[in-house]
Amino acid sequence: METLESHFYNWFGVLLFMVLYGVVLLFLPYYRKMDKKPAGTYLAFVAAFAVEMHGIPFSMYVISWIIGKNLPEGVLWGHTLVNSIGLGGMYVNIACAAVALLLILNGWHQIHKHYWSKENGSGSLVTSGIYRYIRHPQYTGLMLLSLGMLIEWATLPLLLLYPVIVVMYVRLAKREERDMLREFGQAYEEYRKRTKMFLPFLV
Predict the structure, then answer these.
(1) What is the SS3 assignment for 27?
(2) Residue 198 buriedness (CB in 10 A; 0-12 / 13-18 / 19+)
(3) What's this model's pTM, rounded to 2 decimal places?
(4) Which of 19, 124, 152, 192 is 20 to 30 A (C-alpha) from 68?
(5) 3-state DSSP assignment of residue 196
(6) Under a CB-based contact definition with an 8 Å cutoff, are residues 158 and 50 in contact?
(7) What is the overall mean pLDDT for the chain?
(8) What count of other Cβ atoms lies within 10 Å of the Cβ of residue 45?
(9) What 3-state class would DSSP assign to 10?
(10) What is the pLDDT of residues 57-116, one digit of tens each?
(11) Residue 3, CA distances (Å) to 8, 79, 125, 165 in order
(12) 152 with 74: CB under 8 angstroms?
């Protein structure tokens, strides 16, 4: 119990993790009100991750109260894979975060350089860099970032929110593609046919 208590009630850690994982939203495109709901859901996911990992393990307390006994570490609290591969889940999370940041920052750079600048009055269709392989690298990155958190520290809120995040960003991506079709027409349709949406060669 002493080890458990020493891991929690670290509110500076909660704030730090919320800032670290929340700052990626600054590098995602926001030009429509419809973007706010997916972003809010992602922030709720991050808050749940940070609070349950460094603040208070609500999932453990709730489930323990319902079933009348404490859950072992790795079951809806603690490092998810601790009983099978030790702290391996933490390293999986770090790897997911590294790849996710590369996707998000590369996507942001390409969009900022070729689409948002609009030096000639209109943005150009971006098909270079990471956009050569997938159409929505920033959303892929955000979903991968969330998946890493889930793998490291799976709790009830994260298990419930992750599918919601995926559905919301898939829907957002489809709505944005309709805008791109209106703006770029046949050029975007040809790009969409040859380039996968989220995962190269797969989806």
Answers:
(1) helix
(2) buried
(3) 0.89
(4) 152
(5) strand
(6) no
(7) 88
(8) 23
(9) coil
(10) 988 889 889 988 888 888 888 889 888 887 888 999 999 999 999 999 999 988 887 776
(11) 9, 13, 54, 33
(12) no
Q: List, in sequence order, every residue forming a beta bridge with 134; answer none if it has no partner.
A: 196
Both structure tokens of 162: 């992750």
Contact 116, 109 (CB under 8 A): no
> CA–CA separation, 80 vs 134, rounded Å?
30
Residue 48 and residue 117: Cα distance in Å, rounded?
Answer: 36
Which helix (H) or strand (E) covers residue 49, if one does? helix 36-50
Task: Specify the residue for token string 């793998």.
Answer: 151
Nearest to 151 by CA among 78, 72, 56, 57: 78
- What is d(CA 36, CA 44) in angstroms, rounded to the nearest whole number? 12
Question: Token pair of 32, please?
Answer: 């429509």
Tokens coding 39: 């972003």
For residue 9, CA distances in Å to 2, 68, 73, 87, 105 come to 12, 23, 17, 21, 32
Chain-centroid distance, C-alpha 45: 9
The alpha carbon dihedral of 176, 179, 184, 190 has a sign of positive
